[in-house]
Amino acid sequence: MQMGVWISLSAYFLLMIAIGVYAWRKSTSNSEEYILGGRDLGPSVTALSAGASDMSGWLLLGLPGALFVAGLSQAWIGVGLVLGAWANWLIVAPRLREQTEFYDSLTIPGFLGKRFPSTERLLRMVSAIIIVVFFAVYTASGLVGGGKLFASAFGGDYMVGISLTLGIVLVYTVIGGFLAVSLTDFVQGCIMMLALVIMPIVILTSDGSSASEAAARVTAIDPEFFSLSKGVTAIGWISAMAWGLGYFGQPHIIVRFMAIRSVKDVPAARRIGMSWMIVSLAGALAVGVFGRAYALRTGLEVADPETIFILLSDLLFHPLVTGFLYAALLAAIMSTVSSQLLVASSSLTEDIYHALMKRDASERELVNIGRLAVLAVGVVALIIAADPESEVLGLVANAWAGFGAAFGPLIVLSLTWKRMTGAGAVAGLIVGAVTVIAWIAMGLSSTIYEIVPGFIASFLAIVAVSMATADQGEYRHQKLA
């Protein structure tokens, strides 16, 4: 049985490396190509790359696990994410594509620095540090998923699993840069969606059950399993829906907007991306719900609910198909990890090394420094992920909130409000990040999701400080789109 699984996984690994080699030959001659793929992504690749790098392992591990345990009330997170992603495509995508080209910026910190020249050095340094710190945690969440797959599916060592996951990602990311990451994300996004469509159907047909019969089986044990309000307080509902606020400040997602071929391609990318997202989220929810029904019918022991996708892949499918489903899980993990590593590397290279340490660095030197930075961030994430008791959804929640609060209001207001100043930008960045970190440290996340106070505090800090400081004519664009 293991042989068939490893054949499928080996084919998947080889495909990822082959894409990395192709991208290396096509688009790594200078820093713009290595960091943004030459700003030449088509709408399909942009859309699925943004979606795949967004969803990560929590789509196949964390979300189905939450539904498996608590029922349909956990679906509010998905609703919040859909609304947030749609708003992100509508508000941020076209403006960011236009303005980052105008300011000749390759990174988010670079854009912010040139948008607010009076505080350029401070903005670039602080935002780059925040990106590297939170991405180390975020990347670790993906590696935890890889470790859980290896330990649960093969009975292997957890550390070997996270090391293997990181190793494959590093190969194609270091070699091929942004184009490799985007093309592999496109392929991985297709694999993820196909797996999430197949799995619920096979769960239902494994014993000839219909969806209504499966639902009745679960309801008999837990009458409120399908209630959207089960155990949900007003604060809990706000916390779930607030996940959508995070989209505005996720550098690994919005960097795709910077790389799309033109602003005219954004509407097509938005339609493709939102369709992919809705289908994939619906599939993940179905895996959790129908997986619970299957476990009740068969008496399946599920020690870790976040591994329900892995268990069902092993039980219900031919080994070759099981290998494909494992590849889908790895695709979800690796697409996000590679994007995060590259964005963190880009910030270290462009916003610290190039902007603050060596302005006369050659293009080849910057590409090589970027590759070394990918390796460095990967090693730090590996250390953070070493604890096998880590929960994927918990790590993702912390990092998502950190980025959403620090960068969300900053990005939206910098693209839409002329009166914003550099001092306001710095204040919002620091206040948002510090609020989230303090909220987590004080153990207040159980009261309300930390992105809510962080986002509000950051927004208010930007407005208050901007209104209190002189407008230094920092906005150099002809008009806000």
UniProtKB/TrEMBL annotation:
It catalyses: L-proline(in) + Na(+)(in) = L-proline(out) + Na(+)(out). It is a multi-pass membrane protein. One of its GO terms (molecular function) is sodium ion binding. GO terms for biological process: proline transport. It comes from the Bacteria. Keywords: Amino-acid transport, Cell inner membrane, Cell membrane, Ion transport, Membrane, Sodium, Sodium transport, Symport, Transmembrane, Transmembrane helix, Transport. The chain crosses the membrane at residues 6-24, 75-93, 122-146, 158-179, 186-204, 234-255, 276-295, 315-337, 366-386, 392-415, 422-442, 448-470. GO terms for cellular component: plasma membrane. It is found in: Cell inner membrane; Cell membrane. Gene3D superfamilies: Sodium/glucose cotransporter. Catalyzes the sodium-dependent uptake of extracellular L-proline. Belongs to the sodium:solute symporter (SSF) (TC 2.A.21) family. This is Sodium/proline symporter. It comes from Paracoccus litorisediminis. The lineage of its organism: Bacteria, Pseudomonadati, Pseudomonadota, Alphaproteobacteria, Rhodobacterales. The gene is putP.
